[in-house]
Amino acid sequence: MIPRLHRTPCRTSLALCLCLLLxxxxxxxxxxxxxxxxxxxxxxxxxxxxxxxxxxxxxLAQWWKIFNDPILTSLIERAMQxxxxxxxxxxxxxxxxxxxxxxxxxxxxxxxxxxxxxxxxTPESGNNSASTTSNLYKMGFDAxxxxxxxxxxxxxIEATGADLDAAIEDRRDLLVxxxxxxxxxxxxxxxxxxxxxxxxxxxxxxxxxxxxxxxLFTTGFVSKLDVVRAEALAATTAGQIPLLEAQIRQTxxxxxxxxxxxxxxxxxxxxxxxxxxxALATVPLGLPSDLLLRRPDIRRGxxxxxxxxxxxxxxxxxxxxxxxxxGSLGLQNNxxxxxxxxxxxxxxxxxxxxxxxxxxGRRRANLELQEAVQEEQLMAYQxxxxxxxxxxxxxxxxxxxxxEHRQALTRAVTANRTAVELATALYRSGExxxxxxxxxxxxxxxxxxxxxxxxxxxxxxxxxxxxxLGGGWQAKSTSQGxxxx
Length: 485
Hints:
The protein is built from twelve helices and four strands. By secondary structure, it is α+β, with helices and mostly antiparallel strands.
């Protein structure tokens, strides 16, 4: 049976509660404003506009497809699903979302229900009266509701919401880094395999020169010195092969780890030699201002500023009193059969004020702390923007100059091959010594190996440029719909 409430006290309490609710529209603390960052209108290393593609989110989202390598695409897509760092970041997003739910729950009332039974005995009194035994049956509801009069709770929800945004951007930043790391390791693998092939081809040619000089030494046409020099060059080249083989195996191990597997996971798939992939499209540079919207680390910095700004409001609201509406409703009696009677009912309702008057300056110090944290986050944001601009410009100039380097090395390889042919022919005809042949072969091997490394660096610089532009995290939402965590 529900007890009847006395109208006058009840109306007074409800009226007071209503007034507190109306006053709770106030929110202390500064409102978050998106930070401003001054950037140039174009890139320093940008070519004439006719040669630069416009920023296309679809191309940036899956930039690795410009290499037209199905294996690379497969590796990156599998890493997005299995990489352990990404899985941990996903768990951090769930933690941040749960924390937001906890903060949001503080805005509403909390209601508890209790039911108890207690049997007690009183001792004998001094006048020799006998001890007595009694029962107590009690059940009811207790409720409490903190009125967010100065917006501290709402600022806390705002801060935890910004923390959730930061956690999401952190995972996106990991996607950018992870896709670039997978691509860099994969291209490094193909470059090492190409260098290993070059080393083996040169070793075959040098072994042939060793056999030739030995035959000529036997017939007395050359000295023992020519034989030793030929053997030394071949041995030097042969010594490079085990080192390259070890680096190839280590790179495959690194790729396996990025895909969340054991070191041997990708051995069977990647051991076979495949040519180094070459990019088949231009880079969608866009404008420097696009970085502010695209790069996850910049977006994460903005979210951290938002959280720090909201926590200033939390600290400021903590300087003011807190109002809580508490109430209880229930039944209590000494006998169970009489517990549900009207006479057994009880209730209470009313506001409570809590305002610490002296805390040795703790709350004031906390406010100063939060303001300093916001100031730090603002400077960190500016630093992140400047670093992003530097990374793009560095990747641009590196790509431009490495391409010039590669073209020069291509000409050098062609010239060195001709030099080997001419030196060998002159040596066989007796018009030149064997040292010229060895020098030509050595120069050819160095030029071919350096060209292979330059081809790798051209692609690596391109990957660095895509990473600096913030491409890669959009891939999942672009191809499979909105991100789900």
